[in-house]
């Protein structure tokens, strides 16, 4: 199969359990919960997305005809002979629309650990090393196990109340305050309510988007 990739870049993971760790972000084009077009946002299953995942025109993006070609492009973004375990985070869009076992094996053959950031609506291949699921309202959760569950908070729908996820098989549970673009007061209110929930329910930890605070990509 071929792969449509919006962008590939080296940065520090800004969220969740691997915050601060160097990683190659590989953003697949396309999502199954929103077209990515503003005119469709109100009708989308996921309404608060802040990511451009349309097309293949970002830095390092393109259409890759083979798993080997894409894995080579990711490997080229990692600093050579610099120590540390190479790490690729497959994100999107929804990465599990495209990430398959041949690509995961191609990453492993180049020494990479493979992480994903998924909305949880598609089952993940077993070979993935780090699974981060971020459930979205109105979307059925299929991937109910993994390493971290990262819930954007608050979401209006009852299905996304944190208590709905506490029995699932994850090692870490994070609440991430909903960032309202252009409305810092509303964002601050979400930070306060997420922090309060974590204080009252210590299973949950607060995940802040440190890359936004620090101005990293
Ligand atoms: S599931 Fe993720 S990538 Fe898709 S629209 Fe929602 S936030 Fe954006």
UniProtKB/TrEMBL annotation:
It is an enzyme of class 4 (lyase). SUPFAM superfamilies: Radical SAM enzymes (SSF102114). Keywords: 4Fe-4S, Iron, Iron-sulfur, Lyase, Magnesium, Metal-binding, Queuosine biosynthesis, S-adenosyl-L-methionine. The keyword 4Fe-4S applies. One of its GO terms (biological process) is tRNA queuosine(34) biosynthetic process. Belongs to the radical SAM superfamily. 7-carboxy-7-deazaguanine synthase family. This is 7-carboxy-7-deazaguanine synthase. It comes from Phyllobacterium bourgognense.
